[in-house]
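Researcher: I'd like a candidate sequence for this fold, 325 residues long. If you have to choose between options at a position, lean toward the conservative one.
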């Protein structure tokens, strides 16, 4: 699999600075019960990387001291980490909102039958990937049978109050099925809500549209098909300066399964750690780690940018919370 990383390092993307820390986004590991073509972390059933108990303890220490508003748990399938539930309980006891980046099919997987009930009990915000509201498109991108399992997962969440109870937020995520930008988020949300309600009785709160990043599995696919340069040109031609102020990297910090810090989840996958001469955290050549957050300062740091950053600023903009504008 060819890597787009060398093509992304030399960039003319404008410099941006960090404001602070509102959200801590933590990748608990790359193990997943699915293998999706658009996955930017190359997750799958055979991946073994996962956060150690020692790093979980450090993460909890950071939560206790810094009290970020949100803990955003990702993977892989974050629910497959053996300490997922312990971490959720501890964070919720601190009053921290917890987001579970859920692939929906894990909710019906063997051994996870009580997962939906646990999420509801802890008032976890569920952000669930559903790249289309039609069977063929979902199964093509995520695997045969995934659409039906996803619908069953959504039904379980709805039965527990997700999508109707104001304390149980259920948000879906759309990724384009190819080398093109997402359509307008508001209109697509109406289409999703109408179709899922009429066909399956499914209700949810919001739809987030997220641009596919030219990295990892999707980036390799672009290179293999000879579409990489055209896609990058589309991103750059669609650049909107107004999106710069709302970029998630300004107040979200990404942490990998080893506890290493990054400015965003995409930099994590490109192995572009938070570092540099202008860092106000501990100044050294070593990579910055969770434990450094207990003694360091984030506000005002320059963010590590690359060509892939045009993906977040193209068109209506893109973040883990959907469109920016």
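Model: Candidate sequence:
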């Amino acid at each position: 699999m060819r890597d787009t990383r060398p093509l992304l390092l030399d960039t003319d993307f404008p410099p941006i600075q960090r404001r602070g820390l509102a959200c801590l986004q933590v990748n608990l590991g790359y193990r997943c019960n699915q293998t999706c073509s658009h996955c930017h972390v190359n997750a799958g059933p055979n991946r073994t990387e996962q956060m150690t108990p020692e790093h979980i303890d450090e993460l909890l220490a950071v939560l206790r001291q810094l009290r970020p508003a949100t803990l955003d748990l990702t993977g892989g399938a974050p629910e497959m980490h053996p300490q997922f539930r312990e971490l959720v309980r501890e964070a919720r006891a601190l009053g921290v909102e917890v987001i579970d980046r859920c692939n929906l099919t894990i909710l019906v997987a063997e051994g996870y039958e009580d997962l939906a009930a646990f999420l509801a009990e802890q008032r976890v915000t569920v952000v669930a990937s559903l790249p289309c509201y039609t069977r063929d498109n979902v199964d093509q991108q995520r695997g045969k049978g995934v659409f039906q399992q996803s619908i069953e997962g959504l039904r379980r969440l709805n039965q527990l109050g997700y999508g109707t109870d104001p304390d149980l937020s259920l948000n879906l995520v759309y990724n384009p099925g190819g080398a093109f930008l997402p359509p307008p988020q508001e209109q697509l949300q109406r289409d999703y809500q109408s179709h899922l309600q009429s066909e399956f009785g499914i209700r949810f709160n919001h739809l987030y549209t997220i641009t596919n990043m030219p990295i990892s599995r999707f980036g390799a696919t672009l290179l293999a098909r000879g579409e990489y340069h055209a896609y990058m040109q589309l991103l750059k031609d669609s650049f909107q300066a107004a999106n710069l102020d709302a970029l998630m990297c300004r107040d979200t910090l990404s942490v990998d399964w080893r506890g290493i810090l990054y400015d965003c989840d995409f930099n994590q996958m490109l192995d572009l750690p938070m570092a540099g001469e202008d860092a106000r955290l501990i100044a050294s050549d070593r990579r910055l780690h969770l434990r450094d957050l207990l003694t360091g300062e984030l506000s005002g740091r320059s963010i590590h940018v690359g060509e892939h950053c045009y993906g977040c600023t193209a068109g209506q903009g893109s973040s883990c919370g959907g469109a920016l504008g």
